[in-house]
Structure formats: structure tokens, C-alpha cells
Amino acid sequence: MRGMPAGISEDDKLDSEQAKHVLRRAARMMRPHRRQLWLAIGLIALYTLCILAGPYIVSWAIDSGITPRDAGVLNTAIAAYIVVALVHYVAQRTAITTLARVGETFLKDLRRRVFAHLQRLSMPFYDREKAGVIIARMTSDIDAMQELVQMGLLQFVSATMLLVLALILLFVMSWQLMFVCAIAIPFVVLASIKFQKDSNRAYLTVRDRIGSTLSNLQEGIAGVRVIQAFGRQEVESTRFAGENRGLYDAHMESVKVQSWYVPIIEFAGHFTTAIAIGVGGWMVTEDIVTIGVVAFFVLTLSNLFEPIQQLSQLFNQLQSSGAALQKLFELLDTDVDVAERPGAVDLPSEGEIEVRDVVFRYAPDGEDVLSGVNLTISPGERLALVGPTGAGKSTLAKLVARMYDPVEGTVSFGGVDLRDATLRSLRQRIVVVPQEGFLFHGTIRDNIRLVRPEATDADVVRALDALGLRERFEDLEDGLDTEVAERGSRLSAGEKQLVSLARAALIDPAVLVLDEATSSLDPGTEALVERALEVLMEGRTVIVIAHRLSTSERADRVGVVTEGTLRELGTHDELVAAGGHYAALYATWAGGLASTS
Q1: DSSP 341
Q2: Structural contact between residues 569 and 375, judged by C-beta atoms closer than 8 angstroms
Q3: Which residue spans traverse the membrane (predicted)?
Q4: Any idea what the CATH number is for the domain that residue 152 is in?
Q5: How many CB atoms neighbour CB 254 within 10 A?
Q6: DSSP reduced 3-state for 410
Q7: pLDDT tens digits for the chain (597 residues)?
């Protein structure tokens, strides 16, 4: 008996049209592997026939070899049985490996396509979707198909063939005995339908309980310092014990479902075998059937109810896999919000940035985050954007970097609308340096080269030399070949930010968009990053989201963004003298510094 079949919620069930669409699309993806697929199906048919050939050979051996005592026929039957057993072994083993290879290749291609599409999807998509849901597409939805691909599909095809062929052969061998033995089949079918519904409900309860228990476990581990600090160990242990008990009860309920179904299938097999022997024996005495036919019935009936059991168990799994595939196809069909237009042109190597009548909102029916923004930034100018949290300054910087497209208006560089530019040239001309450097698993050299995979080791060293950072990294035990570990956990926050700056230097962009790259660093590392930043900003257009007004003091111009509009624009001295929003912000900031000194 296999474990509980995969459950599927009512919301995930596919209607007939959706199921047809998923099957057609999956079939198109399987076209490159159709020869292997047909080979696997042919092998399944072959070893299914071998399963039924065994009882037929025994029947023939009894009627034509044992009863008339014909040694030649008996020896032939023995040899034929051995050959059939060998063919069954080879066909089944080859079918398993062939079908698994096709299925795993399908999943491998699907994972690759989904991941590649996720990399192309723009920031609006990630604003709309929860990270957990996206991860679930690549994990739980793929896992939902994994068991089906490995053995489920094989069992489904084999069980269907075996059930159909067994019923046909039983009818051909003796339709009278077949009808007598078929008395148990309706009860088995009804029990299987009930099992499918009960097991699905039980599995969904188990799945919910597992999720709840794991969530409680994760929370307890993540918050262990707070729990111990306030002496909540007993309370949390009691709470977890309750969740754990719920999971235990759910599992036991699923066991109850199996405990009544399995004996019914076993009893049906024994009951029909008994009928076959009893009624078959009487039919033999009446010369209606032979002893070999009765033996064929006894042996074949043992293989008749197992396929029904397997099909009932696989039903939920098939539905669950179909629903998972539907979700993955929907993800693949998600449009790229910030896409490259046909006929896109490369941006010029330098030019002014123009923001004209820009309106932007994150959701189509949401409120305007920016409205009526107009701004011109000259080549080589440093512009600081200041304003309260949520005012729209970060959004404006992201529009300049074309992380988003404006709902209305245009953002252009060197006279070219960013929507008409090739994404390759856009990412070369305009580079964003985030507030916290993100590193990928690999070496420091790999992480710097991430932005230009074709860059040589000499190019990487030149980028570091340009910022005066070469010695900083070469002083590490393994130098530039130091492994940074996942998310750069082996490096400090400052070192991760220096790697981000080295990436930008390797690209050599015309425009830098900075989310105040030193605001979260300690004073010692901040000075080093500041020096590297000054070198990197030299001769480039710079847009910096200023969290501290000391940054805006050093900028050529300051833009004050409040309530989604560009309220003020000018030099630091001009805005202080004007006595507006910036002057009030600066006075508050300067007063805070004076009180802490």
C-alpha cells in the first residue's frame, strides 16, 4: 500500500477546458521526446501482456500438458513461462527508466523555463506577487509532479491497460464465469470512489497541519531569544504540543481511511477467488470450462483489483499535478511589464536625463505615487533627492533606471525614450547601486564579474584599482578568490558594498543611481566606501536618494519630493534661503546634530 495520495483543494481543481488546455500544452512540450514516450508506452503494454501471459501459460500447461500427461507440452509451457518472466523483467525495467528519463527531462526543462522567465519579469511583478508564492511555484508545484513522473504515470498506464486487458481475457476465456466473478466489482468501484474523496480530504487536513506545525516550529526557533528572555518556554512548548497533537490526529485520520479501504480490496480479491474456485469447480464437472480456465481465473483475479486500487490512489495525484502544471503555465504566460520593444535602439554613450510630465502608480487602480513630475539632469551633474518616507523619491530614481515604466509621460536619456532603448545598453549606461550590497554564492572575483561575464581577471583588477580597493581584497586570506558564501555572509556589510561599487566601476556607466550606499555602515567602513564612491562618481551623472542631508549639501542640486510631486529644485544654499520644505528639513536635521554633539 502506497502512502496517502496527493490531495487537491476545491480551488485548485481544473474544469474540463482547463484540463484539455494543460494536456495540449504539456503535449507540445513533450514533442521532442515523443519517440521515447511511445517506446515507454509500448514497453508498458509489453510487460502488461506478460503479466496476463503467465496465467494463460499455466492454463495451457494444465489443460494440454498435465491433464493429458504430455511431457513435451509441459516442458514447452515451462520454457515459455521463463521466457515471459525474463521479457517482463527487461520490459518493466526499461519502461521505468525510459519514462522516468522523459518525465525528469520535462521537469528539468520546465524548471529552466520558469526560472529564466522569473529573471525576465520586471519589478511590478514582484511588487504584486508574494515571494513565498513564487518560491512555491518552483518547489511545491514541481514536487507535486515529481512522484507522478517517477512512478505514478507508469502505474497509471500499466494499471489501466492491465484492468482493461484482464477483463477482456476473462470474458473471452469464459463469459459465464466472468459474470459470476464480476459481482464484487461494483462494490470495489464504489469503495474506491469513497476512498478517493475521503483520502483527499484527509490529505488536505494533514497538509494544513504540517504547514501550521512547521510555522510554529520556525517561529519558536527564530524567536528563541525573546522566548527565553521573557521565560515563555513552557507556554511555547504547550502551544507546540497542541499543534503537534493536531498533526498526529490528522495522520491517524488518514490511517483510518486506508485501514477500511485496503481490507475491502483484499477481501474482494479473496471473495472472487473463492467464487472462481467454487463455481468454476462446478462448471468443470459440468464440462462447461476446463480446469486450466479455472486456474487462469484464480491467477488473473489476483491481478484484477490491484489496478483499481492504484487508479483510485492516483486520481488525486493526477489532479494535483494538473493543477500545479496549470499554475506554472500561468506563470510562464505572465507578461514582462518592462519589456524591450521591437526595433529598440542603443542609448548614446552620454546625454542629459529628461523626465517629462511623469505620472506613476504601482497598481492600475491604485493611487498616483508620482504626478506631474518634470526634471532635467545635465551630464555630470549630481542630484540629491530628499523627502519623507513614502514621498516618491525612490520611485522617481527607479523610473530613471527603468525599473518601472511611467503610466504617463516619458523618461529619456540623450533624447531617447527609455522605452525605446535596448535593455543591454540601458543597463550599461544607467547603473543602480543599492543601499545594501547583495552577493551571490561564489568568489569575490565572480561577484564583481557578474555584471560583465566576459570581463577578464585584468579587467576586474583595473576596476578595483580605479577605486583604490585592490589591496583591501587582496589582503584577505584567499584574495579575490575568497568564497563569500550565501548572500555574502562571510563579508562585512561594508565589504559587500565595496563589491557593489567595483561592479559599477567594471561597467563604467554614464549614470549612477545611488540609494545612499553608506547610510547603514559603521563609521570605519563608511569612510572607505565614501572614498570609493567619490572616485566612482567622478565625471558621471549621479542621482542619489539622500537619507542624510549631509549628502544633499555636497550635491550640485537638490530635489525635494513630497506627496508624489517635485516640490522644490535648486542648490542646497538656494533652498535653505527659500525657507520652504527643504529649509525645514535641514533645520530639523541640523538641530538633531547639535543636540547630540
Answers
A1: P
A2: yes
A3: 37-59, 71-91, 148-171, 177-195, 260-282, 288-305
A4: 1.20.1560.10
A5: 21
A6: strand
A7: 444 445 555 555 566 677 777 778 888 888 888 898 889 889 999 988 999 899 999 989 998 888 888 888 899 999 999 999 999 999 999 998 888 888 888 888 888 888 888 888 888 787 777 776 777 777 777 776 777 776 777 888 888 888 888 888 888 888 888 888 888 888 888 888 888 778 777 777 877 787 778 778 878 887 888 888 888 888 889 888 988 898 898 888 888 887 888 788 888 888 888 888 898 889 988 888 899 989 988 888 877 777 877 777 677 677 677 777 888 888 888 888 888 889 899 999 899 999 999 999 887 787 888 999 999 999 999 999 998 888 888 899 999 999 889 999 999 999 999 999 999 999 899 998 887 777 888 888 888 888 888 889 899 899 899 888 888 888 888 888 888 876 667 777 778 888 888 888 888 899 999 886 555 566 667 778 888 888 888 889 999 988 778 788 888 999 999 988 999 899 999 999 998 888 888 888 776 554 554
Nearest in space to 94 (alpha carbons), one of 43, 37, 148: 43
| Residue 27 covered by a domain | yes
Please tell me whether residues 379 and 493 are part of one structural domain: yes
> In terms of domains, do 423 and 403 share one?
yes
Single-letter residue type at 322: G
Cα distances from 486 to residues 112, 440, 475, 490, in angstroms, run 21, 6, 21, 8
Q: How many domains does the chain have?
A: 3
Q: Same domain, yes or no, for 381 and 479?
A: yes
Domain of residue 522: give its range.
353-596
Q: Are strands 370-377 and 353-360 parallel, antiparallel or unpaired?
A: antiparallel
SS3 300: helix
Among 524, 504, 523, smallest CA distance to 514 is for: 504
Question: Which grid coordinates are listed for 354?
Answer: 529628461
- One domain, residues 81 and 211: no
First to last CA, the chain: 75
- The enclosing domain of 573 has a CATH number of 3.40.50.300
